[in-house]
Amino acid sequence: MGLLDLLFGKRKQEVLEAIERGAKIVDVRTAQEFKYGNVDGSLNIPVDSLNASNIKKLKKLNAPLIVCCASGMRSASAKGILLQNGLEEVHNAGAWHKLNRWVNS
Known about the structure:
alpha/beta, Oxidized Rhodanese, domain 1, 4-stranded parallel sheet, 5 helices, 4 strands, about 15% strand, GlpE_sulfurtransferase
């Protein structure tokens, strides 16, 4: 097992454990991208819409969050924004299609 396998295997394990604890999936792609494919039950809040109002809504969920996007770049940014705004447990799953395989395997 290589270093990347170890790192990504750990990410997968953390994400799946968070889902078992009731985590909510937040897809931070645009509405147009989300429309053409997404993880069932995920919320669509584009990364550039992570304003005070949407952050407040996410806090009210009172659950761990898993962020995803097309490749992992926007979800990494979203994770930083959410953590800076007081959300305590946020996981970056990276690409939504990979997360979709994880939750449906």
